[in-house]
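Q: May I have one protein plus its fold?
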Amino acid sequence: MKLLRLSGVLPALILVATTLTITAQSTLQADGGHPSVIAFGDSVSLGVGAGNNNSYVDLLEDWSKVRIANKSVRGITTKEAYDSLDTTVFSRESDIVILFLGGNDIIQNVSKEQTINNLRLIIERIQRRRGGEIILLGLHSNVFRLEYETAYRELAKETEILYVPNVLQGIIGNPKFTTDALHPNAVGHHLIAERVFPVFAHALTKAAEKDTPVHVFCTVNTLQDGERLTSSYSAFTNDAVEWKAYVWGGDEQYSYTWSGDELYKATGSTRIFSDTLTHSYTKFGNKKATVEVRSDSITKSVSCQDTVKIIPQPITARCSVLVRGNTIEWSAFAENADNIGFDYRWKSSSRSDEFEAYTRNITHTYGTPGIKTAQVRITPDGETTHPINLTCKGEIIDTPNTTASCAPQSNYLSDVVVWNAHTTISNPEFKWSGTNSLDATTNIASKQYTSSGIKTGRVKITNSDGASTQLECQTKITVEEEESSGCFIATAAFGTDLEPEVLLLREFRDNHLLTHTIGKAVVKTYYTVSPPIAETIRDSESLKALTRAGLTPITKVVGWIN
């Protein structure tokens, strides 16, 4: 198995410049029955800057399982390449020659015409002496001008050889895919290999013995935002995982069927020499894939033997502590991008105050004052790995003798609620907090509320020694008596204020209209104009029936809202 590795890459590029390739076969097949291949180029073909065994030549060899003799020479020009044919291309037999030359000509200011003429001489000499297939790779990129692309394409057409255009397009000049201005890194070479492979596979099939069976190779790459991730076997949930099959042989008509964990994809017959399945997994665990390729009435199935481990998205977690006298309420909260549930396990670190719980919140009463510590272990539901461990601290203080009360116990919206704390200690300090921003630093706190419901007041009382306690009390805020009157028109229509329809309307008024300024204004206007209307309805059976018919759909809507 070969993994892409980087050498000499700046640390800032590592996260986007490393590609994971997991192979389905672990050993290279013997040459018997396979075409012999030579690659002839410069430092790019040697993989300078990509690390060991990471050049596009290495990848083509991996994917095809055909040995490739790499006869490339660092810094070579097309003139030097022609002069060295006897010791490079002609040093061994070959059915296919891959040519990737000309970059150093441009760097050394050799004219385009001279470069093309040298390439023509190289191609013609190989054709005369060896025959077979020649694959010419184009130079066009951000650095090498488009005019070279046109000239290379015309040369390939003129000499009747195979041609791969734009091999370096988007790679040279892009720091994500290069180690310096002119040399692709491991990810860049992976892109080059993907561009070259279809033409290479066609040449292999054409040069192979008749009735060559279909050859299938499977890789997997983890992706994020379209970029290949670091060299690990892991990916987060919702990250894309790219399974890819490379084929050659058969009758050059292929159909692909993918299967595996959460996977299925089938494609019809095509002349494409590779197929890609990109999937974002939603469940944790080790994931595998199998690809079945059918060609020339023969089906071959290959499993990608290695796996990708899908792990949860990073977890953000925190804990909180609420001290009430000698009792502490420990709470933990976790979240991540998967929006999943979490398992919590609380444990005390003190033998004298041992407790254990498997809930998000746990309340424990302590027998002695002092600093208290608790640990919580948080893991995603159904996952035992990648936990978050938090340590939380709270302090139990020797509390003064204190009491607290709120008066009155029931209040209307128009009333000012008075919260009153009492203590027997001298020179106490008070700090009030609570519902709707209750705030005061004396023993009495006053607040007029704008909404009904249960209101909470908390006061922290501290003595001169710094000992403190926190107490809490509640009061209920209700609507004013006038606003609590009955619904005149509905009561007149239904005959009593105990009818379900009347109760629904009253509940809607109390819980929705009277909770904000506009609603209160509506209610006030209603109580101004509705009494005489109600009197008229009460004296007429026909008006009662008509009003009930009109209120019935309204009460249905109000019931749904309530």
Notes: The chain has five domains: 29-209, 211-306, 316-396, 402-478, 485-561.
